[in-house]
Amino acid sequence: MKPLKITSNFEVFESLEALPEAIQELMKNAFEARDKAYAPYSQFNVGAAIALDNNETITGSNQENASYPSGLCAERTAIYYAGAKYPDARVKDIAISVRSVKHRVETPVPPCGACRQALVEYEVKQNEAIAVYFMGETGQVMKANSIKDLLPLVFDKDSL
Ligand code: THU
User: Fold this and answer.
1) Rounded to an integer, what distance in angstroms lies between the CA atom of residue 74 and that of residue 48?
2) What's the rounded Cα separation, in Å, for the pair 113 and 67?
3) Alpha carbon nearest to ligand 1 atom 2, residue
């Protein structure tokens, strides 16, 4: 037996204002997307905004369905739209914000496992890390420099 230790790195910012202006703008796009979420079942709204290297910003929000598993998270709505609309563009950053109708979310909420898997596909495809910024409705913002910090031991094309 040989132990294997895997380390992930994150940065914690006390508020959105502590981040560069371009990221503040990207997060504001995520806020706007979040407020357009269709989440009548969970009442948990999520918005994602993706900055591409062609200077386009793609946004998405969670889209729920009466048949619950047919719904889709905000991050996947956004990344698949980005991939569909600009297949040759590189993804630079993704900003994510959540808001619950039931309680005030003041701590950063990271993307779910399925979204991490969807996002890492694009990081591997472009061979360049994607920075992830995530937060609640207000408060601290967390940053990962790569999807792989959120998803160590990645399953990707090399696993096939
Ligand atoms: N949700 C997202 O949009 N992104 C995540 O990373 C986690 C969960 C959505 C799915 C569902 O509409 C609601 O949040 C509650 O799980």
Assistant:
1) 6
2) 20
3) 73
CA distance 139 to 81: 28
* DSSP codes, 80-119: HHHHHH-TTPPEEEEEEEEEESSS---S--PPPHHHHHHH
Please give the domain boundaries of the chain with CATH numbers for all domains: 15-150 (3.40.140.10)
Distance 8 CA to ligand 1 centre (A): 23
- Chain mean pLDDT for the chain: 98
**124 residue type, one letter:** V
Report the distance separating Cα 34 and Cα 144, nearest Å. Answer: 20
Separation between Cα atoms, residue 83 and residue 86, nearest integer Å: 5
- pTM value is 0.97
* pLDDT score at 122: 98
CA-nearest residue, atom 3 of ligand 1: 73
pLDDT tens for 121-137 read 999 999 999 999 999 99
